[in-house]
Write a structure and sequence with these properties.
The chain has 550 residues and is of the alpha/beta class. It has 3 domains: 321 residues, Glycosidases (TIM Barrel), CATH 3.20.20.80; 29 residues, no CATH class; 68 residues, Sandwich (Immunoglobulin-like). Helix content is 25%, strand content 17%. It has 16 helices and 24 strands. The strands form 7 sheets. The protein has an 8-stranded parallel β-sheet with strand order 15-12-9-5-2-1-17-16. Strands 18-19-20-24-22 form a 5-stranded antiparallel β-sheet. Strand 19 and strand 20 form a beta hairpin.
């Protein structure tokens, strides 16, 4: 089969890269306020470079009231003082590029904070210059005090908030203090394109586009049909017995992706990247990447990886789905965790062996692998009661009895997956000074699980991440080759696939069971195993191997 990348001149660097997500509040505090900051990111760039990561994705750091910790933006053109200032950001860009790495960050295009100057003006009256920059609608009922329709927000709350100044309701796709911008208004679209250009001129290499699925909603604001689902899934946009078809994944959102691509493609040498966040069926959301003959986003998050059970047959089906709906020149994303979901090691029952096997899968598949900070050392979910939560969703759901929350496999308090990075055995795990209280508690077992300790342990999760990332980087078949599932070798316990590039073939075999299995691939050279001690003809429980085929 021919090369996916005939040469590097096409500049599609994102197809071969590895991405490390930094949640800046929790990475490293350098100024003693208990909150991570931009200098903390700069200080740890060599750590990430040594691990082998090529791209850094940073969660929002622009001006914000921080009610949703940066996803509620009050000024797109300045930096929140908790993190630093524009000069520090420009230094960050310079330091990243000086290490031949890339920098992307979260861009929230769908909504602003209700403290943004645009919204304050829009909410003040019905006839101001920005009156139509957000989504306003008269209410129903005798006094107009009933919401315009039945829409629910993705966070579970009602999607409409009444503003007496306008005697109208305002629409929010997520949380009540995050009003949606009105992209049916051309002025809004141009203003946001100006935001995109501003940061690209600053040198960022692209964006991860938050909640891109909500950019457009039905222009007539028609009510949604009923659904049988109470809670959302990664594939379905139904919630609280309602199908959100009229306010999510609107066809104009796919068109918007192609418009956005044309803006980003104005910038070359190097080319820039757009990666979207959207729940939904893969057969639908691939339209964000290619729609009506036009290129859109370069990639879209595939949350299926997070929710797929850790079983060989499930992972085989997942690969089939990704390859079917994101064939070359499209590319899947391999996302197993982020700032909204339960930590990987906790989902895997605390098993380091499973975590290594998952990492082997993630970094040897065809796709763009994303690592959420701390997963390379196995930071666990830190239990924080809802009533103590700082997360806006936790505050919104604080009425739910804690015993019900504790039974949920997924988190209602996102603080639990956002706790500080564990750097060393010092008090506060080296995230902040000993005398400082971190904004969230560090994991109690930080003396056993931290970067310094795992660097010194040749069999640690950290060192396996480092090995597999460097193997991927050094092996063209793993970062640029085609993928074929070896169905004859697959069963309920074994997943097997090959990566192929320029006539060279590499086998990846994963034993996803707790029992030893016969190794189905012989007469080959082992390049990497999840286990330090391997037997040629047998795979140990949860062992995976990469071999070069003869």
């Amino acid at each position: 089969m021919g090369s996916i990348f005939p040469n590097d001149s096409d500049g599609e660097w994102w197809k071969k890269t590895t991405v490390y997500q930094i949640y800046p509040r929790s990475f490293l505090d350098t100024n003693g306020d208990g909150i991570g900051d931009i200098p903390g990111v700069i200080e740890k760039l060599d750590y990430l470079k040594d691990l082998g990561y090529e791209t850094i994705w940073i969660s929002p750091f622009t001006q914000s009231p921080q009610r949703d910790f940066g996803y509620d933006i009050s000024d797109y053109f300045s930096i929140s003082p908790q993190y630093g200032d524009m000069a520090l950001f420009e230094k960050l860009v310079q330091e990243v590029h000086g290490r031949k790495m890339k920098l992307i960050f979260d861009l929230v295009l769908n909504h602003t904070s209700n403290e943004h100057a645009w919204f304050k003006e829009s909410a003040s009256s019905r006839d101001n210059p920005k009156a139509d920059w957000y989504i306003w609608k008269n209410g129903k009922g005798r006094n107009g005090m009933k919401p315009p329709n039945n829409w629910r927000a993705m966070a579970g709350n009602k999607a409409w908030t009444y503003y007496p100044e306008r005697k109208q309701f305002n629409y929010t796709a997520f949380l009540p203090f995050q009003p949606d911008l009105n992209y049916h208004n051309p002025e809004v679209k141009q203003a946001m394109f100006d935001v995109v250009r501003f940061w690209l001129k600053k040198g960022v290499d692209g964006f991860r586009l938050d909640i891109i699925s909500a950019i457009y909603e039905d222009a007539e604001l028609r009510s949604n049909p009923p659904s049988f689902r109470l809670t959302p899934s990664d594939k379905s946009l139904s919630i609280f017995f309602q199908n959100l078809k009229n306010n999510f994944l609107h066809e104009k959102s796919f068109e918007f992706a192609t418009e956005l691509r044309s803006i980003v493609d104005e910038f070359v040498n190097p080319r820039r990247v757009l990666i979207g966040e959207s729940h939904g069926d893969e057969a639908l959301i691939n339209q964000f990447c290619y729609n009506n003959g036009k290129n859109g986003l370069n990639a879209i998050f595939l949350f299926k990886a997070i929710s797929t059970p850790f079983k060989a047959e499930n992972y085989r089906k997942m690969l089939l789905t990704f390859e079917e709906h994101f064939p070359e020149p499209l590319i899947p994303t391999l996302v197993f965790a982020n700032h909204d979901r339960t930590r990987i090691i906790s989902r895997l029952g605390g098993s380091v062996a499973k975590a290594k096997l998952l990492a082997l899968f993630q970094f040897t598949c065809r796709g763009i692998p994303f690592t959420y900070f701390g997963d390379e050392i196995g930071i666990p979910r830190v239990r924080i009661p809802l009533k103590q939560g700082k997360d806006a969703i936790a505050i919104q759901h604080s009425w739910i009895p804690q015993f019900l929350v504790d039974k949920s496999p997924e988190i209602l308090n996102r603080d639990e997956c956002r706790t500080p990075m564990l750097w060393n055995e010092k008090l506060n795990a080296g995230f902040c000074a000993d005398s400082v209280k971190p904004w969230l508690p560090v994991a109690e077992n930080f003396k056993e699980i931290n970067v310094d300790r795992q660097i010194a342990d040749s069999d640690s999760l950290f060192n396996f991440y480092k090995k597999v990332i460097h193997l991927r980087k050094e092996t063209p078949a793993l970062h640029a080759g085609s993928l074929e599932i070896v169905h004859d070798l697959c069963n309920k316990k074994i997943l097997a696939y090959n990566r192929i590039f320029n006539g060279k073939k590499y086998s990846v075999v994963l034993n996803m069971s707790q029992y030893a299995q016969k190794n189905p691939v012989n007469h080959s050279r082992i390049l990497l195993s999840t286990h330090l001690q391997s037997e040629a003809h047998q795979l140990q429980p949860f062992e995976g191997r990469v071999t070069m085929l003869d």
